[in-house]
Amino acid sequence: MWGLAAIAALLVVLHGNSAGSNSLVITAETPQSQYSESVFLPPSKPHPLPATLAQWYDQTNSGDYFLEVKPTKIGYLIWSQFPIKVYIQQPQPESSDAHILQSWAHEVLQAIQEWSVYLPLQVIAQPESADIKIMRSSPPLRIAPNQMPRARSAETSYEFYINSNNLLSHRCSILLSPSQAGQYLQAAARHEFGHALGIWGHSSLQSDALYFAQVRNPPLISARDANTLKRIYEQPTQLGWSLQRRRADINS
């Protein structure tokens, strides 16, 4: 069972203030004065396609499932700063199960590298610097009204933030259940990483990596997966663009 989740704390602030849905107000103090700062969301615009994705061409004319992909409140989940920095959980040297986690990390890495054909990726050692973090942990139970809790094998979530360059940005976390191994672990990693790259939706065909459920013989990344990813990156978004700020001195 696959899972998607959004941690959209920033959006709650954006839609909850009286300045309107396209801005937020920050109140702060310095030793000299107190001030407020209005932060306005950037307009929605497309980013240039990275060369790896621009060069992709489907000779089989397989189509896509773009209509199944849902944009967020600020547009599609598109990365615009490359390479995308990826952290895969690593074992502690003194851990008794270090060899298990090492094998797990190797399986995950193999699946992640398949996506580097389409977007530039960089695996890093420090989780705090990552755009996408992949952890060996069971996703929390999700309880729908009038339904029994359902266990899931993997989940991808995202959150928005303003980075040090004043760009509206996002980061993703992927949880992969420790109970999975081998080709099924790789399938889960491949699938969830597709979500993290921007395919925020599912395919209805079992031959696609982003098919909505696990299958007996997990597929590799299909032409339809790649076509869908390319169409997403051709869309406008507010992510990756600079915010406008207006500061006012409250004490004046």
From TrEMBL:
In this chain the Peptidase metallopeptidase domain maps to 75-235
Q: What keywords does the record list, in alphabetical order?
A: Signal
Keyword set includes ATP-binding:
no
Q: Which SUPFAM superfamilies match?
A: Metalloproteases ('zincins'), catalytic domain
Cleaved signal peptide residues? 1-19
Q: Which InterPro entries does the UniProt record give?
A: MetalloPept_cat_dom_sf, Peptidase_Metallo
Protein name, as recorded: Peptidase
